[in-house]
Amino acid sequence: MTLAIGVGCRKNCPGGAIETLIRRAILRAGCAEAPAAIYAHAAKNGEPGLFIAAERLGLPLVFLPPQLLQEASPRAETRSVKVEALFGLPSLAETAALAGAGAGSRLVLARISAAGASCAIASTDPQ
């Protein structure tokens, strides 16, 4: 099983805010297994908060190309008008989680948001 955390954030979102949201998402999803990594859109590669959160959580941070996120977009459950306008995707967090978990993955936790960040969790577990 692969468990993937997808994250989206506003410019200069603090690492502590992203870390707190990820921890809350893991608790809310009831994920007993450890996540494989944190996944984000390649356009977010310059966001220091993502690197800080990944380091504090002890998880790899993987930036995905837009094409992979686009391929996962039909499986997203929520939509953000702003994200659609900026990136052409329904949700950065959900598409990153789904793309990170791989083909056939499903959302374990749809997007939650707080303090300028959003987070979703996807898994390949058929459940």
UniProtKB/TrEMBL annotation:
<dbReference type="InterPro" id="IPR002750">
    <property type="entry name" value="CobE/GbiG_C"/>
</dbReference>
<dbReference type="GO" id="GO:0009236">
    <property type="term" value="P:cobalamin biosynthetic process"/>
</dbReference>
<protein>
    <submittedName>
        <fullName>Cobalamin biosynthesis protein CobE</fullName>
    </submittedName>
</protein>
<dbReference type="Pfam" id="PF01890">
    <property type="entry name" value="CbiG_C"/>
</dbReference>
<dbReference type="InterPro" id="IPR036518">
    <property type="entry name" value="CobE/GbiG_C_sf"/>
</dbReference>
<dbReference type="InterPro" id="IPR052553">
    <property type="entry name" value="CbiG_hydrolase"/>
</dbReference>
<feature type="domain" description="CobE/GbiG C-terminal">
    <location>
        <begin position="3"/>
        <end position="122"/>
    </location>
</feature>
